[in-house]
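User: Can you predict the 3D structure of peptide-methionine (R)-S-oxide reductase? Sequence below.
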Amino acid sequence: MEYRPGRRGFLTRMLLAATALPAALVGRAHARPARDFDYEYEVTRTEEEWRALLSDYEFAILRQSGTEWARSSPLWNDYRQGDFSCKGCDLQLYSSDWRVALDKGWVFFAHSLPTAVMTDIDPGNPYGLRREEGTAVVEVHCRRCGSHLGHLLVVEGQLVHCVNGTSLIFAPRTG
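Assistant: Sure. Here are the predicted C-alpha cells for peptide-methionine (R)-S-oxide reductase:
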C-alpha cells in the first residue's frame, strides 16, 4: 500500500520528513483523484491545458488535491511583505499581513481576501473525516479556477488556512 500524506497527523510526518534527505523529497507529490463539481469556475481548462501550464508536481497538488511535503516549498518560512496569488489563474488570494507564523512546514494564513477562496468538505479517504472527532476536513480552493490550495485546520488553537506553497505565486511588495 502506498503511503499518502495528508494534514491529519502531520506532526509525525514532519519529524520523519525533517530527518530524511531533502533530495529524496524533490518532485514527489501524493494526490488523490480530482472530483467533479457542478459549480462552473470563471477559468476553465482541459486537463491537457492544465498539464501544459503546470509541472507534474504542481498538477498533482493544484488539480488532484495533493499535499506537498512539509518544508518542501520555499514559501513556508518566507515572511517578507507581499501578496500571494493562485498559481493556476493569478487571482490574488492572501496578503502577508495575514500570515500566521507556525513552524509546521506549510504556509499559514488567518484568512484570505474576501471572496477569493471557496471551501468544501474534503472527500479524500481516509482524510475526509476525522473519525475520532467526528468532524469533516475542510478543503480550500481558488474560487476563480478551482485549484486546490490546502485546508482549514485548527493548529495550536488557531483556525488557519494551511496552504501548499506550491499552489501560490508570491509577489514581494516594493518600497
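DSSP finds four helices and ten strands in the chain. The CA atoms of residues 76 and 106 lie 5 Å apart.
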